[in-house]
Amino acid sequence: MADYLRPLLYLALSLSPVLAHDNGLALTPQMGWDTWNYYGCDVSEQTLLMAAQAFITYDLPKYGYEYIITDDCWQAPQRNATTGAPVADPTKFPSGMKAVADQIHSLGLKFGVYSSAGKYTCGGHFGSLGYEQIDAQTYAEWGADYLKYDNCYNEGLAGTPRLSYDRYANMSFALNATGRPILYSMCNWGEDGPWNFAPVYLIPARLVRAVTYLTQTIANSWRISGDIYDNYNRYDERCPCTSMIDCKLAGFHCAMTRIIDFAAPVGQKAGVNHWNDLDMLEVGNGGMTYDEYVTHFSMWAVLKSPLVLGNDVTNMTNETLEIITNDAIIAVNQDANGSPAERMWKVPVASGGDLSLWSGSLVNNTFVISLLNTSPETQTVTVNFTDVFIDQGPSYQTGTYAIYDLWQRDSSGAWGKNIGTYTGAIPNVEIGLHQVRIWKAVPATTTSKRDTAEL
Ligand SMILES: *[C@@H]1O[C@H](CO)[C@@H](O)[C@H](O)[C@H]1NC(C)=O
Ligand SMILES: *[C@@H]1O[C@H](CO)[C@@H](O)[C@H](O)[C@H]1NC(C)=O
Ligand SMILES: *[C@@H]1O[C@H](CO)[C@@H](O)[C@H](O)[C@H]1NC(C)=O
Ligand SMILES: *[C@@H]1O[C@H](CO)[C@@H](O)[C@H](O)[C@H]1NC(C)=O
Ligand SMILES: *[C@@H]1O[C@H](CO)[C@@H](O)[C@H](O)[C@H]1NC(C)=O
Ligand SMILES: *[C@@H]1O[C@H](CO)[C@@H](O)[C@H](O)[C@H]1NC(C)=O
Ligand SMILES: *[C@@H]1O[C@H](CO)[C@@H](O)[C@H](O)[C@H]1NC(C)=O
């Protein structure tokens, strides 16, 4: 069924009481920093405030980074015995969570908190299952702007979309009921297909040939796979699935390029205020080369994943800082069009790995093109516009484009160098091992129109 007809399916649903909420957040993928990838359980008010200060020192808000998120292990051993409310560990957070949130806010930043839709969190602290209301209320009182909501110790309440939906929708409603807009980042590792059960499509604004329609969703983003680890392509038995579509064990220790494979088919399910989360970034943590981290950051950007840093932002190399502040790449991620790039082809390379071509639409009739080489050797590829513009049709395929390389600086030092005008193809592109090319394509003429066949 064409996606634009799907809203009709939900006509009856949308006439019943509203089941989901629109908190007005994540119109573009969220950007920020989270403690987990660098600190693990070793969180404290100091780690959060030092990161917040580093955001200011390095001017990261200018690029769009805004959330400072504590991951797991902020909790005291017990909830408040009288009220059942969550309590922060008084040795790690002697000032209390509200004071930490206040200080983060005073820097112009936003504060995020973590819990699990289970009896315990992954680190064995108290979880939120059965405590959704009081937890959401307490986070709102602290001044939280973001909740990362994990999936550990879920007591078997998973295995069907309905079970997962109920657990995650419960917290969604609880957050909504607080009256405070709190970005809701579902972390159920792709179990039961959150791309299917989290969005709720409403009646399109224009029923006739509606290509855009309103979407309400129980969450602003959902993780699509088991946890990332700081590695380019190593297969690890703890991340056993080859695709997430029917995966029975999401696991963890998923190498970066494996997550790109997982993301390829589900781009169609993401959009404004409901994003596929490819997991937090490892850029700067040391397990990959410069080219591999450029690939990591670029592909997360073009697939419209949240860009949540996971490195020590208080102590970054110039290379790390340069990668995470490439504003031409970030502009692709934050493009108002909100459509993840799609993989147009993928071909295996005899020596291992593969080559793949990705294409995505940006606002103002412009496009992003990505060429990815996960093989262990340099490749030469002619990028044909018949492939790039499969969706747009013949007039686009034969069109002429100004091409900008988003990993080269122009003469003024800005990212995005114009490398020339191309018709039909970008010929003979040399791409080194584990490299990526990210181009922006701008039609050189304004005469092309969308092919009617596509609408
Ligand atoms: C709660 O949901 C309603 C209905 O979608 C929405 O209008 C409102 O903005 C939401 N409020 C918050 C705080 O998320
Ligand atoms: C538990 O809640 C009560 C009532 O709000 C409060 O007086 C008390 O300080 C709280 N205890 C802890 C450990 O937060
Ligand atoms: C959410 O879960 C709580 C505790 O299990 C339950 O009392 C409540 O009815 C649930 N809310 C919804 C909307 O399902
Ligand atoms: C900063 O990072 C470098 C490695 O990049 C390390 O050698 C150094 O100890 C770090 N400094 C601090 C204060 O953590
Ligand atoms: C990093 O960049 C800063 C500012 O541009 C410069 O002063 C410093 O020398 C650079 N450090 C290295 C190791 O290149
Ligand atoms: C799109 O075009 C409008 C009108 O020319 C312009 O104001 C806007 O900056 C453009 N957006 C981008 C992302 O280029
Ligand atoms: C692009 O087209 C040329 C000419 O038809 C062909 O030789 C080449 O293999 C194509 N490139 C790819 C990556 O398919």
From TrEMBL:
Keywords: Disulfide bond, Glycosidase, Hydrolase, Signal. The keyword Signal applies. The lineage of its organism: Eukaryota, Fungi, Dikarya, Basidiomycota, Agaricomycotina. This is Alpha-galactosidase. It catalyses: Hydrolysis of terminal, non-reducing alpha-D-galactose residues in alpha-D-galactosides, including galactose oligosaccharides, galactomannans and galactolipids. PANTHER family: ALPHA-GALACTOSIDASE MEL1, ALPHA-GALACTOSIDASE/ALPHA-N-ACETYLGALACTOSAMINIDASE. It comes from the Eukaryota. It is an enzyme of class 3 (hydrolase). Its EC number is 3.2.1.22. InterPro entries: Aldolase_TIM, GH, Glyco_hydro_27, Glyco_hydro_b, Melibiase_C. Residues 1-20 form the signal peptide. Belongs to the glycosyl hydrolase 27 family. One of its GO terms (biological process) is melibiose catabolic process.
